[in-house]
Predict the structure.
Amino acid sequence: MYVNYYDRYEKLPEEKPSVGILLCAAKNDSLVRITLPEDNAQILASQYQLYLPSEEALLEEIKEVLEVAENGMHHQRGDL
């Protein structure tokens, strides 16, 4: 709601449309679709975690991302 209010009443004519980020403890895609305008391209909704994963879980995730990136680079160069 604040994004629409700001764009309608506060934003200067030379300013670009506002971008909004909606952070939800539990994201419900149906509710997001109903709440936001149909032609919405400027408000993003995402779920956040209340607690960070352990250091070991974060390191494992980083390793997996790096492996995928390395495999993609090898594949693009024809190394596979």
Summary: The mean pLDDT is 78.
